[in-house]
Specification:
Three copies of one chain form a homotrimer. With 347 residues, chain A is of the alpha/beta class. Chain A has three domains: 93 residues, MurE/MurF, N-terminal domain (Udp-n-acetylmuramoylalanyl-d-glutamate--2,6- Diaminopimelate Ligase, Chain: A, domain 1); 215 residues, 3 Solenoid (UDP N-Acetylglucosamine Acyltransferase, domain 1), CATH 2.160.10; 32 residues. Chain A has three helices and 40 strands. Chain A has a twelve-stranded mixed beta sheet with strand order 8-11-14-17-20-25-28-31-34-37-39-40. A ten-stranded parallel beta sheet of chain A has the order 9-12-15-18-21-26-29-32-35-38, with no helix packed on it. Chain A starts with a strand and ends with a helix. Chains in contact: A-B, A-C, B-C.
C-alpha cells in the first residue's frame, strides 16, 4: 500500500485537514504510530494519544473536537472504525493481487488451469489437477494429481493438497498445512505388528473455509473427511480420517479431533481441546480450552470444560470444592474431636 | 484406478451378475455410494443399503440372497470384506507407482540413487545422500547431505530429512514432517542468557515405520534419537533429542515426548499425551489421551490416565469421588448439625 | 568433520597417546562409541567404558590414570568436557558453512542480498526482500516480499517468512516453521457466519532467537507480534497475533499462546502449556508442563502448575488431598456411625 492522505480522503469521501501530500505505506495503532503510517481514533479512551502519535495521518469521527493543535494530517469521516475496516480490506486484498504462472512453476499438461490464477515459483500442479479462476498457488505448494482448488481460493506457501482432495471457493489455506495425508488406521496381526489399512477416501473442504498454518487434515479411509462451508480453523489443528465439521464452526489452535467424530454447526472448540473418535457434537456447542471430550454431546448450545469434560457449571463447582478440600479436611478432623469429647461426656 | 466390473470379477475370481462393462474409478461406502464407484456389503446391518446405493458395483458374499431386484452390478466372492481389502491395497499401491527422476529435481552428483526410484519436481537430494532402490521422494522434499532413505520408503511432499539422519526400508513419512532438527538444548550463562549446546547426533528411523504429517523428530545431542521397527506415529507428534521408541509402539496425534525418554515395545500413547524427559516406560504400557506422565513406569502392560497420570483404576475412582464432592460436603454439614444437637442433649 | 587424532590434539593443545593417524568423522557417547568416532571421559561414573568403547579416539583429563592397556588413541587435555564442547561447536559450525546462491534458487531482482550468503536450490527470495550478510536460506525456504533476514541467521529448509516480517541477527529457525500467517481474527455477522478481520501487522523476531520446527507465529492484526532477543522456542509452538515474548524466555514444545498475551523476561513455559489471550505474565515466571493459564500473573518468579493453573504449592497440596479422597470418604462414614451410636446412648 502507498497512498497520499489526499487519495485516502477522496476514497473515503472524508474531509481532509492538514497536509494532503503526506504518503502512508502502512497502518498502525494510535499509541505506537510511526511516521509514514495511518492510524485511527474510534475509542474515546485513546483520545489522549491523538496529541502524541507519530502516525502521519489520523482517521477521526466527524464530531471529534481537538483540544489543542494537531500537527498530523486528519481525515474526518462519519465512522472512523468502519472507514478503517474498509481500508484494511483494501490493503489486505492489495497484498494478494498476484497474477500469472511463474516460469519456474511446474504445471502438468493435463492440469486444468483457469483464468487470472497465480502460480508461484516452484509450485507444483500435478496431472489432472484443477486450479479454478482467480486461485492463488504460492511457492512450494503442491497440488497432487486429481486434486482441485476452487475459484479465488488462496493456498499459501508450502501447502500440500494430496490426491483427489478438493478445496472449494474463496478459501484460504495458510502455510505448510497438509490436506489428505493418510488416516491413522492399522490392524494388529498375530505378531502384534501393525498392518496398514489402505486409506483411499479423500478430503472435501467446502467454500469460504479458512485453515491456519501447519494443520493436518487426513483423508478418509473410504468416503470423505469433510470441512463444511464457513468453518474457520486456527494453526496446528489435527483432523483425523472421516471427521466432519459442520458449517460455520470455529476450531482454535492445537485442537485434535479423532477419527469419524462429527462436529455440529456453529460450534466453538477452544485451544488444545481433544475429542475421542466416533462421537457426535450437537450444534452451537462450546468447548473450553484444554478440555477432553470422550462422549457425544446431544444438547444444543451446551458449554463444556475440563478433562474429562463436563458442563461448565458442574466444572466450576468442582473447581471451587477442590480448592476447599483443605478446609473440608480440617472440618472432618474437628468433627472427630467433638465426637471424642461427646463420647467422654457420655461415659 | 480405473477398472471394469468384468476385470475386478476376474481378478477376485468372483461371479459377475449384471453389466460387466461398467467402469469404476473409486471406492465408496455403501450408504453414500456414487455412480462410478465400487462398494461392498459385509456387515448385515447395512443390507438395506444394497437396494438404494448408487455405487455401480457391489461386492457381496457368495451366500447373499437379494430380496428384490438390484440394478447395480454384483460380484459374488467368498468373503466380501477380504476381497475389498485386497482391492484397496492394489488401489493404494496404484497411487504410489511413480518412477523416474523429474528433470526439475535437484540431485547432487555425489548422491547415490538406486533403481526404480521416484524423485519429484523440486525435490532436493544433497551431497553424499543415499536414496535406495524403489524409494519415492515427492516434490519439495529435502534429503540433506549424508542422509539416507532405505528401499521402497516413501517420503511425501515437504518432508525434511536433515544431515546424517537415516530412514529404513518400507517406511512412509507424510507431508511436511521434519526429521533431524536440532534438539532443544541450552545452558544459561552468567547473564541468564541461553547458550546453545551443539546437537551433533542424528535420528535413526528403522524399517516399516510410518510417521504422520507435520511431525518433529529432533536429532540427538550425541548418539541417536531412535524410532524402532514397526512404530506407527500419527500427525503433529513431537519427539525430542535422544528419545527412543520401542518396536511396534503406536503414538497418536499431538503427543510430546521430552528428551532422553525411552518408550518400550508395543506401547500405545493416546492423543495429546505428554511425557517428561529422562524416564522409561515398560513394554505394552497404554497411556490414555491427554495424560501427563512424569515418572518412569516399570510395570509391563500398565494402563494410565490423567495429568499427572496414575493407574486407570485409581484415576476412575478419583473421578467418581470428585463428582461426589458436593455430596461429601453436604454430609459433613449434616454431621456438624447432628453433633450440635447431641451437645445440646448432653448439656 | 574429518580429522586425524594428530590434528585434534594439535588444535586442543593436548597430549597424544597412541596412533595419531587414525581418522574420526563423528562424535559418539563413550558407552556406545563406534570406530571412526571421537568420544570423551568427563564423568568418573563412565570410567569403565574407557576400556570397552570402540571409539577410535578418547578425550581424557590430564590426571586420568589407566588401570589397564587401552588400544584406542587417547588425547589428554586439562578439561575433557570443555575441550569436547569446543570441538562440538566447531563441528556444528562446520555443518553450516555453505556459501553461494544456487543456480536453481529464485532471487527477485529487487531483493537485497548481502555478502557470503547461502541460498539453496528452490529457495525463493521475493521482491524487496532483504537477506543480510552471512545469512543462510536453505532449500524450499520462502522469503516473501518486504521480509528481512538479519546477519548470520539460518532459515532451514521449508521455513516460510511472510510479507513484511523480520528476523534479526544470529537467529536459527528450524524446518517448516511458518512466520507471519494471518492471525485468527473474525467477527460474526448477522447470520452467525465469520467475517475475516484483515491482519495487516507483522512479526518481529529480534536477535539471537532460536525457533524449533513446525512452529506457527501469526502476524499482528495491526502492529507487531514480537519475539524478543534471546528467546528459545522448541517445536510445534503456536504464537497468536499480537503476542509478545520477553527477552531470554524459553518456550517448550507444543505450547500455545493466545492473542495479545504478553510474556515477561526469563520465563519458562513447559511443554503443552496453554495461555488464554490478553493476559500478562511477570518476569522469571515458570509454568509447569500441560498447565492452562487463564489469568495474568503479577508475581515475579512465581511457579505455577495445573489446568486451571495455580501456584505449585497449592497444586501439590490439592493433588495430595485428591489422592486422599477415598480416606476422607471413609472417615466421614465412620463419623456418621459414631454419631448414630452416640444418639442411641443418649436415647
Amino acid at each position: 500500500m502507498e497512498f497520499t492522505a489526499q487519495q485516502i480522503a477522496a476514497f473515503l469521501n472524508g474531509t481532509l485537514e492538514g497536509n494532503g501530500e503526506v504518503v502512508v505505506t502502512d497502518v498502525s495503532k494510535i499509541e505506537s504510530g510511526l511516521p509514514g503510517t495511518l492510524t485511527f481514533l474510534a475509542n474515546p479512551k485513546y483520545t489522549r494519544f491523538v496529541y502524541t502519535t507519530k502516525a502521519s495521518v489520523i482517521l477521526v469521527n466527524d464530531d471529534f473536537v481537538a483540544e489543542r493543535k494537531i500537527e498530523n494530517t486528519l481525515i474526518r469521516v462519519p465512522n472512523a472504525y468502519e472507514s478503517l475496516a474498509l481500508l484494511l480490506n483494501i490493503v489486505q486484498n492489495g497484498y494478494n493481487n498476484k497474477v500469472g504462472i511463474h516460469p519456474q512453476a511446474f504445471v502438468s499438461e493435463s492440469a486444468q488451469v483457469g483464468k487470472d490464477v497465480y502460480i508461484g515459483p516452484y509450485a507444483v500442479v500435478s496431472d489432472n489437477a484443477v486450479v479454478a479462476d482467480g486461485a492463488k498457488i504460492y511457492p512450494h505448494t503442491f497440488i497432487d494429481s486429481h486434486a482441485q482448488v476452487g475459484e479465488n481460493s488462496v493456498l499459501y506457501s508450502g501447502v500440500k493438497l494430496f490426491r483427489n482432495c478438493t478445496v472449494g471457493k474463496n478459501c484460504i489455506i495458510h502455510g505448510n498445512t497438509v490436506i489428505g495425508s493418510d488416516g491413522f488406521g492399522f490392524v494388529q496381526d498375530n505378531a502384534e505388528a501393525y498392518q496398514k489399512i489402505p486409506q483411499v477416501g479423500n478430503v472435501i473442504i467446502e467454500d469460504e473455509v479458512e485453515i491456519g498454518s501447519n494443520c493436518c487434515i487426513d483423508r478418509a479411509t473410504m468416503g470423505s473427511t469433510i470441512i463444511r462451508k464457513g468453518v474457520k480453523m486456527d494453526n496446528l489443528v489435527q483432523i483425523a480420517h472421516n471427521v466432519e465439521i459442520g458449517e460455520n464452526s470455529a476450531v482454535v489452535a492445537q485442537v485434535g479431533i479423532s477419527g469419524s467424530t462429527k462436529i455440529g454447526k456453529y460450534c466453538v472448540l477452544g485451544g488444545q481441546v481433544g475429542l475421542v473418535g466416533h462421537i457426535e457434537i450437537a450444534d452451537h456447542v462450546k468447548i473450553g480450552a484444554q478440555a477432553g471430550v470422550n462422549n457425544s454431546i446431544k444438547e444444543e448450545g451446551a458449554i463444556l470444560q475440563g478433562s474429562p469434560a463436563f458442563k461448565i457449571r458442574d466444572f466450576q463447582k468442582s473447581q471451587v470444592l477442590l480448592r476447599n478440600l483443605p478446609k473440608l479436611n480440617k472440618e472432618i478432623l474437628e468433627l472427630r474431636k467433638e465426637i471424642e469429647k461427646l463420647k467422654k461426656g457420655l461415659a
